[in-house]
Amino acid sequence: MPLPWLIGVAAVAAVTAIVKSVSDDSPSSSSSSSSGSGEAERRRLDLAAKREREETNLKKRISDLEKDRRDQLKVQLNSVAPTLEQPVKAMAPGRTATQLEQIIAGTQSSTSAYGESMKIILGADSSFSAVRSKRFLTLLNVLEGLTAPLAVQAQEQQAQTQLKQSAARINRLQQLKTSVERLT
Amino acid sequence: MDQAELYIDALEAECKRLQQQQAQTVPPKPSIAAWGLVKAGKSSLLNMLSGHAQEEYFATGTVRTTRTNQQLELEHYVLIDTPGLGIEQSDSQQAMEGLDVADVVMFVHAPPGELDEEEIDLLLKLHDVHGDALEQRLVMVLSLLDKDQDGAMAQVRERIESQVLRCLGFQPTCVEVSSRRYQRGVELGRQGMQEKSGVPALALQLERMASALGPQLAASRHKRLVQRREELSAALDRALEQEQAKVQAFCAPYAKTANAFITLMSSIQSQFSIKTAELRTAREKLSSL
Fold first, then answer.
1. Cross-chain Cβ contact B258/A118 below 8 Å
2. Residue B122: which domain range?
3. Number of domains in chain B
4. Considering CB atoms only, which of B251, B271, B282 is closest to A121?
5. Is A76 on the interface with B (CB under 8 A)?
6. Domain ranges of chain A
7. CATH number where B119 lies
8. pLDDT digit string (tens) for B13-49?
9. Which of B11, B228, B251 to mutate to test the interface with A (most CBs of A within 10 A)?
10. Closest Cβ–Cβ partner in B229, B250, B258 for A162
């Protein structure tokens, strides 16, 4: 190869080497870009994993809370019916968490035989307010929704009969009082 | 039927009597009622007093005959025969009605015995009805004087008078009569026998009492009606209060139970709500992920 050509080739090779060495140091090079996207991917994966962990934890926490809430309710309900001098009633099976919440937040009054009986008895008591009576019947409906409707015991039936007799006597006396007042 | 029902029945009967008596036109003459236990000789005495010695107006007999109040208007007053007290509730109710309209009461007792417990109760009832005015309105009549064979009547009378004094706090006019002696006197036309029977003296006493009442009769009747109305009204108030207190006492254990239930269920509801709130927060967090 003639010398001028040799010099030329050598010069080009030198320039190329310089350019390459310079471009290797530059961050905006193409090899730098591919390394950055890997980092982001890693971060995304980390985040996803973290979210999954959080999701799993939350799901577990929700499940634990639901179980805890249900177990607590079951235990508490065992002591309620005896307060009303009724046999212990266990919580009815198969209720979902949402159903339990709806029952607990219910505002309807009980219409069971026991509820109707207590409605009459409490209604006859002038010292027991109508608001309190409504509260009792609402809570009774909650209890009966969670367990089962309560039956009327013999004592409530007897109480109802006696109250009816008393009410009839009071009615008679009030009518007589009106008749006497008209005598003036 | 229990005591409470019976008491209300009695109040209702009194209310009806008041309504009837207020509505009816009362005779302008004073009413004199013969009042006392069964077989005290009330009807016989009234026959003698009303000039029916031979042909009775007020039915008499060996069994109790007067079941309803019977009236007979005489020149100066109206005589009322009432059923004998102490046997049947319905008879006693009738007798009480007779007492309500009576301006003067002849309390007829048949010795030889003294006043028994039932008669003392009746005298106290009379005092309840007439109050202090009873002194001017009551005549004690000791009937069947002809049975006084051994002369013990004076002692019996003395004891009866002291019983009445203890019971009422005053001594009413007391007259001894024998309807049978009067009747025999009429039959035989013997004035002396009639006089000795005590019936004319009693008639005179009743006439005196009736004429003394005359001017104030309407006012005193009205006053008595008002008083009875007030007493009935007060008795009704008391009965109502008692009945309502009974209901309260009866309901109290149920109210206590209901209150305990409300407390317990509210606590359960509240604890459930706290857990539900935690759950809601967790669910919201989950859905926001």
1. yes
2. 24-215
3. 1
4. B251
5. yes
6. 103-184
7. 3.40.50.300
8. 889 888 888 887 666 788 898 888 777 788 889 999 8
9. B251
10. B250
